[in-house]
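Reading group handout, session on sequence-to-structure problems. Before we discuss, look at one worked example. The prompt was deliberately terse, the way you'd type it at a terminal:

> structure Amino acid permease

The input record follows.
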Amino acid sequence: MNLIENKEPTVKRNLKARHMTMIAIGGSIGTGLFLASGTTIQSAGPGGALTAYVCIGIMVYFLMTSLGEMATYMPVSGSFSSYATRFVDPAFGFALGWNYWFNWAVTLAVEIAAAAIIMKFWLPEVPSIIWSALFLGLVFMLNALSIKSYGESEYWFSLVKVVAIIFFIIIGLLTILGVFGGEVIGFENFTMGEAPFKGGFLSIISIFLIAGFSFQGTELVGIAAGESENPEKNVPNAIRQVFWRILLFYIGAILILGLLIPYTSPSLLGGDVDNISVSPFTLVFERAGFAFAASVMNAVVLTSLLSAGNSGLYASTRMLWSMAKDNQAPKFLAKVNHRGIPMNALILTAIIGGLAFLTSVFGDHVFTWLLNASGLTGFIAWIGIAVSHYRFRRAYVAQGGDINELKYKAKWFPFGPILSFILCMVVIAGQNYEAFLSGSIDWYGVAVSYIGLPIFLAIWLGYKVFHKTKVISLKDCQFEKSA
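And the output record:
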């Protein structure tokens, strides 16, 4: 096989196993679960919501095992952009990397803006821009100090969310059994009216996108693989633990909500960063008799936002650094300081995130389009992982590799990546299918929903035409074992 040895100064392998696990959990458990999970129950009923999350969960499992196989064999900080460049086509890797970087840079702006809104719950007189500047400075500092400071901060941010969800599930079960509230609820709400499945198959399909967004961020474990102190052991362990824990948290939380709150309840549609007091999670805690529920959930959601901003800055910085190493971004972004931090990439990403935030202050219309442009990027990245793994395994065999010698082997190949590819394409196509069902096509709705797709294709095809790249033959795919 074609091995590339990398002797240049690089990032440091200081992430421990517990960091890797919590990075993946922190990336995928966020405000979508705490604030928006009720919407899926209201739309498709509790059974429909559970079905959608289980299906997306299975797809994510296959994607994570695909990523795990590649990241264990070839741990690269920046991961799937590099894999796509080596195993598919440099143009494909270029487009994946820049789109993913842009997505997290914009997401960083979203998270710090939302965190500032949360602070108004306690200190309404302080201007939001002050909090946003402080939070941006905080996550920048955590990323700039060392990879260990990022890993440690993400560990504790994520732990707060995990404890909150476990506590919610326990309190919810005790409430259902009548320990809190004095009334046994059972399955009454789960089977009332059209429940458990409201609206049939199409309703389930319609919430696939919400479920998919909820799971996005699990791929962070692949990006962090290049900085794990023992990737051959830590990456597989993190992937195995993370999938089952996340699935348990999401399925457990939605099951509790479906049992406690009727799908017809208007409260399931409530809950956002402006009014956490009507979040389904808050309502369940209050029903159990916890008067301080709103304050607690505010603190948990604030932690989730800071965690997402922290991880977003890390992921986009490493992606930019990785692309610079692959000659797909300016070379100055590949420089790493003595602490193993790609500071130029970090500073540029923080600046772009800050500028994106300023558009939200001075021009909501511009910010909305930036956000929409990044909307499909997570699913496009997942498609990139599926395609890259399919090609990785075939190239590995074509170059004489023995599958049994892989330290971590994805199960059910090639079914896993093929199923993941198909489901991601279905979700992307159905992003706003309602725009095509009315008497006349809602072209503005189509543009808002799908703008990220032509941007990705334009970057991909533009690079391909300019650099005259071709799909790499299996015999020429290059394998690298050092980050």
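Points for discussion. First: The two ends are 17 Å apart (CA to CA). Second: The mean pLDDT is 84.
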